[in-house]
Specification:
28% helix, alpha+beta, 30% strand, 11 strands, globular, single chain
Length: 179
């Protein structure tokens, strides 16, 4: 079973579209996809929120499924959309039912909130850490918890981290990548 990722685009207080990626729910891969979307986001600063969300997800290589393409063409009849190459490249959902369905498949989620320029990054594990008598870190129960950061922090600091090789300490927690 793959590490399944959902990336959601939130504009005007609502998730306008999401994309499901079957083998991308690993920290490093998810970070790279997110970075590609944010680096291309300047091309889509204005316009209809749902069309903008579709375009942002298409940057990553994702495409509308056949049924979602039909819905998109009802809203934007003169618009061309990127082809859907399959679940590994990303399946874009825009209708509430399809968004709900792809959420059922996910193991990790990233929400890009374009209203507040904040990322809710939930594609890693967090270990509450405490010191034992010998000074070593003891990992308690493994948790999945979102880590919030601004777009600027993500691009300038977080995206530079190579999560394939190490964990990092944040406050009294150990942030460990999903390999």
């Amino acid at each position: 079973m793959g590490q399944r990722l959902n990336i959601e685009i939130k504009i005007n207080g609502k998730v306008r579209a999401n994309a499901y990626y079957h083998w991308s729910g690993y920290t490093q891969t998810a970070k790279n996809i997110t970075l590609s979307i944010l680096k291309g986001a300047y091309k889509f600063l204005d316009g209809d929120p749902t069309l903008r969300a579709i375009r942002l997800l298409e940057i990553s290589g994702a495409g509308l499924t056949d049924s979602e393409r039909c819905e998109a063409l009802k809203m934007y009849p003169e618009t061309n959309f990127s082809p859907c190459e399959g679940r590994n490249e990303g399946l874009i959902a825009i209708t509430p039912d399809a968004i709900k369905e792809t959420r059922r498949w996910e193991k990790g989620r990233i929400t890009l909130d374009f209203d507040n320029n904040i990322i809710k990054f939930n594609v890693y594990f967090i270990h509450p850490a405490k010191n034992s008598n010998n000074g070593k870190i003891i990992h308690a129960e493994l948790l999945r918890s979102p880590f919030y950061m601004t777009f600027d922090y993500f691009i300038s600091e977080f995206a530079k981290q190579n999560f394939e090789y190490f964990c990092f300490k944040y406050k009294n927690l150990i942030i460990e990548p999903i390999y």
